[in-house]
Amino acid sequence: MRVVAYSIKSFEKEPLAIANNKKHEITLISNSLSPETASYAEGKEAVIVFNEEDNVSALVINRLADLGVKFIATRSTDTTHIDTEAAALRSLKIANVPLASLSGLSARELPMALAIETIINLDNWQQNRCLGDACVCSRACDQAGSKVHIKGQPHQH
């Protein structure tokens, strides 16, 4: 999968490279996602973002969709920085890092755990598999549009 990762800090590069293990073609950039930098996603299938550093508003989501992006993975448990309604309207799928996957980890272990979970989401998308607890889509994966996903409740798979 061709991916661009925005807002990458120096301490995140190695964990992402290790977790990826050359499976996906990931471009790492330090710039945050914004209307001006959305063009870096041209030719990419997915973008990786992080919290409020990245602007994932309706305007940006529409630009990403127009560029052919189909997936937004956040390197965080929170998704309030993403306009999920706009993403649903443009059929972009969203994934986060499930909170349970970070339980009991030290601050030193977090970058690797976030990287691993992010790559797992990319792997699952590439294989057309459901993301389970990481899915923040508006619909259940196995129902292709017939069941609405209620935020905070598990999918019915």
Automatic annotation (TrEMBL):
InterPro entries: D-isomer_2_OHA_DH_cat_dom, D-LDH-like. Keywords: NAD. The keyword NAD applies. Pfam families: 2-Hacid_dh (PF00389). SUPFAM superfamilies: Formate/glycerate dehydrogenase catalytic domain-like. Residues 12-101 form the D-isomer specific 2-hydroxyacid dehydrogenase catalytic domain. GO terms for molecular function: D-lactate dehydrogenase (NAD+) activity; NAD binding. This is D-lactate dehydrogenase. It comes from Pedobacter caeni. The lineage of its organism: Bacteria, Pseudomonadati, Bacteroidota, Sphingobacteriia, Sphingobacteriales.
